[in-house]
Amino acid sequence: MGVVQAVVVSERETWCLFYYEDGGQRRVHDYFALMPYTPVSLLMQEYSFYRPAMNMSAMCPSGNAGILTAKIWLDCGVADGGRRGKYRAVRCVPALPEGQLRISNERSCGGVRTVTRYSRQAYTNVLGGIMSHDVYHATSVDPDPHTQLEACVRHSNKQVLTPAQLDT
Q1: C-alpha pair distances (Å), 79 with each of 70, 89, 108, 118, 132
Q2: Which pLDDT score is estimated for 27?
Q3: What is the pLDDT, as a whole number, of residue 126?
C-alpha cells in the first residue's frame, strides 16, 4: 500500500492556525484538513506502508482531482496518452507551443503536460507517468509582482489605490 497526498495553497493558512492558535492540537476529524508532509511520513512508517508515496501541490483541489483522474484513465485504458486514445481529453503533449518555457527553465511559467510510456517524442519518460497543471498558479508567479498583488489585496478594503501607489 502507498500514499497519495495532495496539497492546496489554502491549506497553508490552516497550518498557521494549527501551530500558532491551536497549539498543535486538533480533534481527529479536524486533523485530516491539514494533510502535512511529516505526519504522512510517520503514518507510512507506523503502518508499514511499503509502496511509493506521491505528493502534489496545486492552487485548487480540482487541479489535483484532474491529475488523478487523468492518471486513472491512462492506467485503466480509457485513454492511452497518445493519438490512439478512446478519448482525446487525456493525451501526451510532446512539444509545447513555440515560445512557451518548459518547467525546468529559469523563470518558467510551467506548462500542462503528460509524460507517458506511449509517446515516442516525449519531453521525458518516467516510470508510472507524470502530469502537471501548474501553468499560472501562485507557485509559478514571480515573487516581485506577487508581493505587489498581495499589497494591493491587503489595502483594497481600506482605500482606492492608483497604479502609482502599488509601486511603493
Answers
A1: 8, 8, 29, 11, 17
A2: 75
A3: 45
